Amino acid sequence: MLLFGQILSAIALAALIPVALAAFYYFVLACYSLLPRRIRELRGRSDSARFAVVIYARNAENEIAEAVGRIIDGMDYERSKFEVVVIADACDDSTAYVASFNGAKVLERRNEWKTGYAHALEWAIPILIFDGFDAVFALDIDCVPLANTLKLLDSAISAGYRAVRVPFIPTREQSLAAGLADVAANRINPSGRSKAGFSCELSLPGLCLSKNLLDKVPFAVDERGDISFYDAKLLMADEPIAFLSGAVVLRGDSGKGIEKTLAVPAARLLKASFDGNLAAFERLCAALSPKASTILAALLVVLLTGGVLMFSGGRFPQYSQLFGYGRFLVVVSSLAAVFLLFHLSLSFFTWYSDSILRKAAGNIRRNRSAHSKSQVSP
Q1: What pLDDT digit, counting tens, does each position of 341-353 carry?
Q2: What percent of the chain is modeled with pLDDT above 70?
Q3: Which of 33, 67, 92, 204 has fewest C-beta within 10 Å?
Q4: Residue 314, Cβ neighbours under 10 Å: how many?
Q5: E strands within 27-143?
Q6: From CA 368, how far away is CA 163, in angstroms rounded?
Q7: Are strands 203-204 and 256-257 parallel, antiparallel or unpaired?
């Protein structure tokens, strides 16, 4: 019985160590995410950077007018300093014509083999940089950026940030589990990494790249159109991606970030870590960390195991050694659970508070829809 208890303790401890470290890692990210944001709108200064606000569209003649209109009319930024650019990707309808009629610059692309936002952006960015834009801000057709978004991006670029990720909030209702996972992946974790001095992951839409960065590390994706390929290039080039927590983009769904993607092989990340690239080491930890639900389940199993060992050691004097093993497992797993619950509580509060912005987005969409119908050419 004693030998069985010792083996059980060793197995529980082996399971506890990685999940406890992961719980502490999430706790640290949550704490950093609560710090004041590092990038603020610089008041009393004129808008300086010239932005290309890119919208990807494919056969979207019924939606593109509204999408262009809410960017042109909704931005609190000098009108001559930004331009809405629609990439009409292999369209068979009048998307390009409607977008141009409503005030957008249109880039028509004809490539039936490599369609998709990432491939289209790879094709369009050299054209936009040649046209004199200082930064490219990529949005989707259903995105509603808040009015101060470009001003905050301008402040970020002026402060020396060259790659910036803007958080997005889905306007569609989500289940509690999906909402917590979305908030953690797209708000709390990247915000914590950025404020801690590390690099958050790229996300498309919501990506802003400056001309200086693109000159140094040209935008590129792999054959599948995976943006994590470029994320890896920035990581290995030691180019951090800042998280602009002060700006928000509302969109119809949760989008596709690259959370939990090992864009770079683990061996390269380890080598870069030993070479002093802390961002690579942090990215490796992030990619290998289990999901919160997995951590919580593992902690519950370890907690129950520790309780059984404490009961056995306290009930039977000959097995009193097991009581100490069980107490250690219970204390450590309970502390790790507190760390994780802090992260989950912050995720829940953020998810709940987003309901206000969801209602605001609904009002914006209704107003824009009525406006765009009067603007579309017959």
Answers
A1: 999 999 888 887 7
A2: 81
A3: 92
A4: 14
A5: 51-57, 82-89, 105-109, 135-139
A6: 30
A7: antiparallel
What is residue 308's three-state secondary structure? helix
Amino acid letter, 308: V
- 174 or 86, greater pLDDT: 86
This prediction's pTM: 0.79
> Which residues fall within 8 angstroms of residue 165, CB to CB, at 6 or more apart?
190, 200, 201, 202, 203, 206, 207, 208, 241, 242, 243, 244
- The residues, ordered by sequence, that sit 6+ positions from 52 with a Cβ below 8 Å of its Cβ are 82, 83, 85, 105, 128, 131, 133, 135, 136, 137
User: What CA–CA distance (Å, rounded) separates 56 from 67?
Assistant: 10
At 56-84, the pLDDT tens digits run 998 888 889 988 998 998 888 988 899 99
Backbone phi, psi, residue 73, to 5°? -85, -20
Q: Which amino acid is at 374?
A: S
- Residues facing 86 on adjacent strands: 55, 106
Sheet holding 51-57, edge to edge: 105-109, 82-89, 51-57, 135-139, 207-210, 163-165, 242-243
